Amino acid sequence: MKQLIECVPNFSEGRRPEVIGAIAEPFKNTPGCYLFDCRADEDHNRLVVSLVGSPEPVQTALIAAAKIAVRHIDMETHAGGHPRIGAVDVIPFTPLRNMTMPECADLARSFGERFYRETEIPVYFYEEAALRPDRRRLEVVRRGQYEALKKEVADPARHPDVGEPRLHPRAGATVIGARKFLVAFNVNLGTTDVAVAKRIAEAIRASSGGLCHVKGIGLALKDRGLVQVSLNVTDHEKNPLYRVTEFVRTEARRWGVEVVETEVYGMVPAAALMSSAEYYMRIAGFDPAQIIELRLLEMMG
Amino acid sequence: MKQLIECVPNFSEGRRPEVIGAIAEPFKNTPGCYLFDCRADEDHNRLVVSLVGSPEPVQTALIAAAKIAVRHIDMETHAGGHPRIGAVDVIPFTPLRNMTMPECADLARSFGERFYRETEIPVYFYEEAALRPDRRRLEVVRRGQYEALKKEVADPARHPDVGEPRLHPRAGATVIGARKFLVAFNVNLGTTDVAVAKRIAEAIRASSGGLCHVKGIGLALKDRGLVQVSLNVTDHEKNPLYRVTEFVRTEARRWGVEVVETEVYGMVPAAALMSSAEYYMRIAGFDPAQIIELRLLEMMG
């Protein structure tokens, strides 16, 4: 089949239903672009859209939606709880099938050029698509948000990667990038002692020296009499779910605590679960093309 | 998405490439019918085709292929190592998505009527589509093969389920049915003692009182210094792969023998592996619609 990507564009509008509907329209009506989820948050005043499809239709729909967003969103009057620098705040591309990460980064960069040509919104590249190492991290690019960037954009250190060194008068700037698929994964433990979950979260997360592609916190599930190690796995190929599970199990054993259950939150690529089935059952020489549904998807193109 | 079925028609031709090619043609060229595999065996003089698709295009392609088979295959002169009663020997339908087994059995029966109308080949129904309990088993329907059935078809006990009580002069009869997806699954053990594999196969298979939907034999993998419990799981929902694996592991422990690896042979539905990932990782409340590829397949229709 053709290349397949996920894209999760974030728009700075979470309150006006008619604007949200108008922005979502091209994602619903562009053949080959599949709208998986569309979630508006009033407090954040932000719309998070989840798309899957081939690169071309996804890009076409993104451009159309961006033009609608520019017409309806004015950053000069926008307020909301989530950090943002533009009406079309951030567009991350994720490779799903038949695409490498370098190819996806190239896609993000060429889309950034097209995006600027068609919307006149300046573009910053982040994560795998970053052109400057310091711009890999989204929070660095977005520092000070729209209000600060409006002045600082003239400073060469904050010049956009594409476009003139000034923000779009209404739509600000857009951050475009490439990153791996993020799996939200929780491990629930049979204790009411939240300290156990917090210690394990500290042991496993990258920020305190654990697994390189895991973020995590420990919290109590009071109603259930359990605690939870709540994790984001930012690279499930390098840090597969079975390894994360066994890591938590091993640490929990130190406290005489059992893994009661795990939770996969939201969407997940088939490979993230297959690798765990392969591990636990020791399946030798398995090829994902043996899975009927994946083969069919390839054949349907 | 629409209903999805697998179908594995068997044709009594495994030697003449031009005939094999002609029979395969409609499976390749009917939109909505996806040809997964096409395997001719010279000794068996038999062609086994593996199809996936929506019921309508799969049936259309089957009728077209059957008409070609009737033109080129004469059961009066056919010889081969595999039991058979007709040019289009057997057509099993398997429900894959959005279809229950009773619906699939109905599909098999209505297809049987259409098949007879369009080809004049009489039809027997087997397994879940059987109209008489004694015809559930394929080997009963095929008893004595083409040569015996030609005479015995006049006997009411062997009358076809659809059509006059006589065979098609060239194409014999066809057995049509509905059955669950069959998963070929092997468990390789770290011993050279084939008796261990044979004992475990005996313990697990239905025919000697084990799991109801498992067939199995024990054999030696001499080159590898291992033995194998070679299994067919005829209902992976009732006898999931993790349970089969753990059953074998428990029995092997009695002999101080380890499960070295397992093998999934050929195609497998995603659910057969997902259920194992769910079991080993204790994933709570998982919905297959969370898997991107399955969701996409639904949306692509």
Write a structural description:
- Two copies of one chain form a homodimer.
- By secondary structure, chain A is of the alpha+beta class.
- Chain A has two domains: 4-178, Formiminotransferase-cyclodeaminase, Chain B, domain 1; 183-300, Formiminotransferase, C-terminal subdomain (Alpha-Beta Plaits), CATH 3.30.70.
- In chain A, 36% of the residues lie in helices and 24% in strands.
- In chain A, the strands form two sheets. In chain A, strands 1, 2, 3, 4, 5, 6 and 7 form a seven-stranded mixed sheet that branches. In chain A, strands 9-10-8-11 form a four-stranded antiparallel sheet.
- In chain A, a hairpin with a 4-residue loop joins strand 3 (33-41) and strand 4.
- In chain A, helix 1 (17-29) packs antiparallel against helix 2.
- Chain A is globular.
- Chain A starts with a strand and ends with a helix.
Main traits of this protein?
homodimer; 301 residues; alpha+beta; Formiminotransferase-cyclodeaminase, Chain B, domain 1; Alpha-Beta Plaits; 7-stranded mixed β-sheet; 4-stranded antiparallel β-sheet; 11 strands; globular
